[in-house]
Amino acid sequence: MSLPRRKNTVIVGGGTVGTTPAYFLTRNTSYDPAVGPIVLVEAAGIAAGSSGKGGGFIASWATPHCIAPLSFKLHNDLAREHDGEKCQGFRAVHATETEIKVKEFDTN
Questions:
Q1: In whole angstroms, what is the distance from residue 1 CA to residue 41 CA?
Q2: Which residues neighbour 6 within 8 Å (Cβ) at sequence distance 6 or greater?
Q3: Which residues is 40 bridged to in the sheet?
Q4: Which residue did the predictor score with more confidence, 3 or 50?
Q5: Would you tell me how many other CB atoms lie within 10 Å of the CB of residue 95?
């Protein structure tokens, strides 16, 4: 039997968009760090800046619509698993949006 071929995974960026795949790759049942590490390359530090890609919120009106319920569930699961309320200030909030029409009136 031959040894598994070494594979390296390199992820550029230590923000939400970079750390998320690194996190989930390490949780895959087939992941073996002895076969190939996951290397995350970041210029400044983990979560040290903002690329403008990870807005930090999720909403039921996000598109595609089928992803919103999955995203809500995943965020809650991760918060429970990693004590998100205490460690990261995770909280579920409810917001609403409404449109109103204001009728102009004479104040004289």
A1: 34
A2: 35, 36
A3: 11
A4: 50
A5: 7
**Amino acid identity, residue 58?**
I
Asked if residue 58 has pLDDT above 80, the reply is no
For 9, the 3-state DSSP assignment is strand
Contact status, residue 105 vs residue 99, Cβ threshold 8 Å? no
**33: preceding bond cis by omega (within 30 degrees):** no
51 or 13: which leads in pLDDT? 13
Cα(42)–Cα(47) distance, rounded to whole angstroms? 9
Report the distance separating Cα 81 and Cα 79, nearest Å.
Answer: 6
Q: What is the pTM of this model?
A: 0.66
